[in-house]
Design brief:
Among the domains are: about 150 residues, TIM Barrel (Alpha-Beta Barrel), CATH 3.20.20.300; about 200 residues, 3-Layer(aba) Sandwich (Rossmann fold); about 120 residues, Immunoglobulin-like (Sandwich). Helix content is about 30%, strand content about 20%. With about 750 residues, it is α/β, with parallel strands linked by helices. The strands form eight sheets. Strands 13-18-17-16-14-15 form a six-stranded mixed sheet, with helices on both faces. Strands 6-5-4-3-12 form a five-stranded parallel sheet. The structure holds 1-deoxynojirimycin (NOJ). 1-deoxynojirimycin binds next to loops.
Length: about 750
């Protein structure tokens, strides 16, 4: 039974101190304050401890027996435990068997869906469909909350220009503006309008900060960049999620400027709380505290724990440093009581905002779990989002396929349902995936019109299936080869030093293409790959990412033109690893490469500077024509704005959706500016022959950046403006900004 009486109805009352908005202090409801006054030191520390259940772990288990710890009031938060039944069982222990009955908070990595699995986040971001992104988070929250979960470790807001890094699959790509719109949308989707609504879950902004920039793309590796670069390109998506109301943040594993994020006062206090006004709690990543010993930043685990809490960490995920040493540190004065209480208050405030003190069991609902999980509507939405996320990189006319035409399907990934789910699939299960890509093509085309040959596995050098694959290709009119990386090659601890397609898949592709049969490649993978070879041999390339529960059908929808592809890359695809990092907001340098034969210009001798597939690129089965840009005026001044319009016409024979992108260049600045930087975008759906005028508003905010004196704002001068369907296919105009 819940031991709390519903006292004050207020959940989070914020009082702004006299120091102004820079120093907001969280004050809690009477209920939280009264609870705090009754808590022993052990109980307080317990609220700052987050242990994994024994269901699944992604690192060492520092502590066995979490159930006993819950019972002793020494573990107030659990992750990796779900289902209404199991969370209820644990919650009953916390509520009924501990002295104060404080409810547990249950967290889990609900990253791209819970039971209904959506495409991996890099794929979702390629849809550029912000409403759909929000809806995917809403559905994930509804399914997760019904299974007893209160908290998802998402959105992942890490900007990344590093394809070697396995976790590039979990984010929204390279761009801060697109990344910010997505992190805000996901936060809204998870948390809804009211956190106490039992169909919403608490969002967790991660991995704060700049985890997506590990040196050499090796997971957990050192990060170092200027404060300006950090603020301009890396911090915006975290901030956007704070602004959207996210009430928890996860500190990242990496160091930044020599200080591990887990003990980084500048990040956690000065930027997150003082500048951005964040009001929730900060949790470490998995054993992030212990790892500061390996970083060489703390002498031992106790010291690491002290450094973490004093720098602004409120909750310790899995390191047991708070569990083992914090009480003693408070008693000795190494950590002040005020610091301890502040952290406890932040955690209790969020528990209260979730409504857990009113009803600790409101999230565990076997009934909702059965009725709201993997519904037909959720699956239909997942299918649509998966289609929207796919990017047609190349098409010489092989696609769309024609129903009833004999097709050879080749590749081990074609028959895999497991790989469709990708990394961090939460509670997604392979037996809930209704169709592999092969199954779906068979349904579309009639099984008799489909010949399948595995050809080769996605790894290894076994060529024994080549002959059968070539024979299959010869019997068919067209070939679909499903190749790429298996799902374990993406995600945490899945960095690669080679971003070409593994194994002998490309060799087989070359041989199949040499038969003269038109070949469409469907890619399953979670990172930008070096597709230089495949782009020469394949007639078409469809980037399908790991498309989720309904991914087999979604791929077939696109292949057969049932869904006209509309995805656009949210990250640049390089020609080879040597070009990395390559991204659309690069600077001009003092020696830009403009003269074809020049030697002493910023260029490579062996490849062009341009990537293979630029940011924003993505083809359709129709074509779009862009008019010249019309500006409402050639100049605007402070507090004013101008509009830039283009008319987009569908010049093909089928309806299609185009993402119209706006880029800007500030020609001269107090610090150098990117040659092109995304500033806005809009999706338009047009029937054949139809036109629509798309208008963007450019104001002070659009032109703002971190100036030389580290203030954020615009500078007067000349600007270029670009609008088009990809960062490398744009119309241009110019305007002035005056102050
Ligand atoms: C480690 C990962 O870095 C993080 O993203 C995840 O949320 C935690 N483990 C919990 O599983």
């Amino acid at each position: 039974m819940n031991k709390f009486l519903p006292l004050a109805a207020i959940s989070l009352v914020l009082a702004v101190s006299c120091a102004g908005p820079a120093r907001k202090e969280v004050r809690s409801s009477d209920r939280v304050e009264s609870l705090l006054s009754k808590m022993t030191l052990d109980e307080k520390v317990g609220q700052l401890v987050l242990f994994t259940s024994d269901w699944s772990v992604t690192g060492p288990s520092m502590r066995q027996g979490y159930i006993d710890d819950i019972r002793a009031g020494r573990c107030g938060n659990i992750f990796n435990a779900y289902t209404a039944e199991y969370t209820r069982k644990l919650q009953e222990i916390a509520v009924n068997e501990t002295r104060l009955g404080i409810p547990l908070l249950f967290g889990y990595d609900v990253i791209h869906g819970f039971r209904t699995v959506f495409p991996i986040n890099l794929g979702i971001s390629a849809s550029w469909d912000i409403d759909a992104v929000e809806e995917s988070a809403r559905i994930a929250a509804r399914e997760a909350a019904a299974a007893g979960l209160h908290w998802t470790f998402s959105p992942m807001c890490d900007i990344c220009v590093e394809p070697r890094w396995g976790r590039v699959s979990e984010g929204a790509g390279e761009d801060p503006l697109l990344g910010s719109r997505i992190s805000a949308a996901m936060t809204r989707g998870y948390q809804g309008g009211d956190l106490s609504d039992p169909s919403t879950v608490l969002a967790c902004i991660k991995h704060y900060a700049a985890y997506g920039a590990p040196q050499a793309g090796r997971d957990y590796n050192t990060v170092d960049m200027s404060e300006r670069w950090l603020r301009e390109f890396y911090l915006p998506p975290y901030k956007a999620a704070v602004d959207a109301g996210a009430l928890s943040v996860m500190a990242s594993f990496n160091e930044l400027d020599g200080v591990p994020a887990t003990a980084n006062y500048h990040l956690m206090q000065e930027i997150l709380r003082d500048e951005w006004g964040f009001q929730g709690f900060v949790v470490t990543d998995y054993t992030g505290i212990n790892e500061m010993v390996c970083h060489g930043y703390a002498a031992d685990e106790a010291d690491a724990g002290r450094l973490a809490i004093n720098a602004g960490i409120d909750m310790d995920m899995q390191s047991a440093a708070f569990f083992n040493y914090l009480k003693e540190q408070v008693e000795s004065g190494a950590v002040s009581r005020k610091t301890l209480d502040r952290a406890v208050r932040r955690v209790l405030n969020v528990k209260e905002a979730l409504g857990l003190f009113d009803d600790p069991f409101r999230y565990c609902s076997e009934e909702r779990e059965a009725s709201e999980t993997l519904t037909d509507a959720n699956k239909a939405f997942a299918r649509k989002l998966a289609s929207e996320s796919m990017v047609l990189l190349k098409n010489d006319g092989v696609l769309p396929l024609v129903k009833g035409e004999k097709v050879a399907v080749i590749g081990s990934l074609a028959a895999s349902r497991d790989d469709l789910l990708g990394t961090w699939r939460a509670a997604g299960e392979v037996d809930k995936v209704p169709a592999s890509i092969l199954d779906a093509i068979r349904e579309y085309n009639g099984a008799a019109n489909v010949v399948y040959a595995e050809g080769c596995k996605e790894q290894g050098d076994d060529r024994s299936g080549f002959a059968a694959a070539l024979a299959a290709a010869k019997r068919a009119k067209k070939v679909v080869m499903v190749i790429g990386e298996n799902c374990h090659w993406s995600g945490e601890a899945a960095s690669r030093s080679d971003i070409r397609i593994p194994g002998v898949q490309s060799e087989l592709l070359e041989k199949i293409a040499a038969t003269g049969k038109p070949v469409a490649v469907v890619l399953l993978n979670g990172r930008p790959l070096d597709l230089s070879a495949e782009s020469e041999t394949a007639g078409a390339i469809l980037e399908a990412w790991y498309p989720g529960t309904m991914g087999g059908y979604a791929a077939a929808d696109v292949l057969y033109g049932e869904y006209n592809p509309s995805g656009k890359l949210s990250i640049t695809f390089p020609r080879n690893l040597g070009q990395v990092p390559v991204y659309h907001y690069a600077k001009n340098t003092g020696r830009p490469y403009v003269h074809p034969e020049a030697k002493y210009e910023s260029r490579y001798l062996d490849v062009p500077n341009e990537p293979l597939y630029a940011f924003g690129h993505g083809l359709s089965y129709t074509s779009f024509d862009y008019s010249d840009i019309t500006l409402s005026r050639p100049i605007f001044a402070e507090n004013g704005s101008l509009t830039a319009s283009v008319t987009v016409t569908n010049t093909g024979a089928v309806a299609g959706t185009e993402t119209v992108q706006l880029y800007i260049r500030d020609l001269v600045g107090s610090v150098t500016r990117p040659v092109k930087q995304l500033k806005d975008f809009a999706r338009v759906t047009l029937g054949p022959g139809a036109s629509e005028t798309v208008t963007f508003t450019i104001g002070r905010e659009t032109l703002s950046f971190w100036r030389q004196d580290m203030t954020f704002g615009p500078e007067p001068g000349d600007f270029k403006l670009f609008i088009g369907g990809a960062s490398d296919a744009v119309k241009e105009a110019e305007f002035d900004y005056a102050e």
